Amino acid sequence: MENNESQTDLAALEALVVDNPDLERLEALLSQFNIFEALRAVRHELRHSDVLAYLLTPSQNHGLGDEFARRLLQKALIPANIQPLPASPIDLDIWNLNELVVLREWQNIDLLLLDEPHQLAVIIENKIESGEHSDQLERYLRTVQQHYSGWKILGLYLSPEGDAPSHETYISVDYGTVCEIIEGLIESRSSTLGADVRTLMVHYTQMLRRHIVAESEIAELCRRIYLKHQRALDLIYEYRPDQQAIIREILEQLAQNNEELVLDHCSKSYIRFGVTAWDVPKLKSGKGWTRSGRIMLFEFANSIDRLKLKLIVGPGPDDIRQGLFDTAQAHQPPFRVAFKALNQKWNTIYDKAFLTSKDYENATDEQLAEEIRKHWNRFIESDLPAISETLKKERWI
Which of the residues 103, 164, 367, 383 has the least number of beta carbons within 10 Å of its own beta carbon? Predict the structure, then answer.
């Protein structure tokens, strides 16, 4: 039975890689050089906003003048059902927008377009993968209203699939529309566009078609390939390299290579280690955490898109836990205590971010490993000695 399953799996893998025109087309698309892929800017919202700011600014050296801004605003307003509209598509066709100013990250707004001659302000909130948070659309609208009192204000919510914004006065715009506008400009301005600018626009739309817009050719090819070769792809996915497991291995190796440290209980999500010098009776009288009885452990929280190192005071005698907590509170830095009072079980008295969500964007395992080692060396050379020295002075321990 097991041999039959192996033969079936092998046949499924062979069917996937042999004479598969969809897979060949997908590989051809992904193998084409693209400057945005090379710069790892595919899903980086800040880089998308930078490109849009460049194209939207009439005074930039792209030679488009105000045409991209005009077309984007017209496309957004034509299907809009908000009343009254701050401007109509006809207004925008007549207006000269050459004095348009584009601000980046003003008051945390991704893009703010200011057209003083017509007293028009346009807020563009750009979302690639993240969603809204903390009523940001309402806050941005209030901020612009306060700074540009009496102006007409338009809010655009830009996302890959045209997601509905939470605020009723914002208009949804999708990246497919952005892609169509740029492609239209490439065609209509082909005789006047500079070669470098044209290359930039072509590469940007190619990248959008490959990775961002909902109905991209790549998305359709992936769906077709998966439906036809589900067994083979599920098998590949089952045996794929696991990034969390790779990071766990790196962290365990770093701790094991340091004679001052000792590994404690570890899993893929939590890698714990203690300091050998802290293995004294008072600090090993804990119960209910790990079998070692260590009350105080360093713990890496190893999630899918974040890596943080914490020093945690866990379960143990209340007087010892309180003493450790008070010591940490009194010596910041090197300690960093988030709460004013001791919690019943778990208390973080130090934390250090090793990897943030941005570090994971399009990064290879080697690049993540390099970033981890960089932060680890700083921890070993600076923070750990400072923490250990502080604890040494506590004679009660």
Answer: 164
